[in-house]
Amino acid sequence: MIEPILTIVVPCYNEEAVLPKTFTELEQLLRELISEELVSDKSKILFVDDGSKDQTWNMIYKEGLRSPYIRGLKLARNVGHQNALIAGLMKAKDVSDCAVSIDADLQDDIRVIREFILKYREGCDIVFGVRKSRGTDTFFKRSTAQGFYRLMKKLGVDLIYNHADFRLMSKRALQELERFKEANFFLRGIVPLLGFRSDIVHYDRLERQAGETKYPLKKMLAFAFDGITSFSVSPIRFVLIVGLLSFLASLLFGGYFIALKFLGATQTGWTSLIISIWLIGGLQLIAIGVIGEYIGKIYKETKQRPKYIIDIDTMSLPIPRRHLLNSLGEDEPFRIDNKKVSETNQ
User: Does 216 have pLDDT greater than 60?
Assistant: First the structure.
């Protein structure tokens, strides 16, 4: 069997603290896979810089000058983890037979990538990396994550339990993924929709080696809400049900107070009046907010703006000798423009 060309896609945002270890471990793994003839020697590791504010891109570029296996993709600005990952996968689609996505902190066990490749060679188009447990998480994070997966399941969204973005996708799967044009891209929900032959590889989550998590509570909640509203209209239906129940309750209380009036037992009470106003007003604001979220998503879809803009690409363009000779990488790297690049290796 011909060895497939593999691209390992690594989205990065302010990862200068962990990158040296990530470079070493991923390159060593790739060399082992090549020596075992599991993947082609044309395989690469593609680091996608998502508009980092530290030295992340400089480190990626300089490492690319040193290593024949490391390449970089610099986005013009920060577009978020999911869009940066999409940028890397779409670039990998053009130059490889399969792609593995993994975060730069290497908390996902890179050793199971070998199992990914074996299952790909057996005919799987998608291989999901699934955590065996959440023992390394805090109680709060573990509880909220499990609650999120349960909620998504009840809403009818097909998610792989305890799976994040550690997966292998074949070229065919990536080509079909490209057909999904929505601006509100939720990969964890879209990939299972492809329907190709898939399998699961379980692994133990590792401790973060350096740096800080890029998903604090605020971002996790926003990510979860975005996933829910991107794949389900249940929140709007829930608001409708609450509205109907409130209407029925108002009819019952209305009848009750009318009966009291005819019986002569009416009393004036500010407390019940204010509580009723606040309750109904709060429900109305919630309803408007939920509907507004969906309208906002429709607004984003109609504009059809690109998910990302590539500033520098060392994956598909050759690096001239003058750059290779400059070990410090101080020369200006290639930039993407409309002009034909005439500079080639000498």
Answer: no
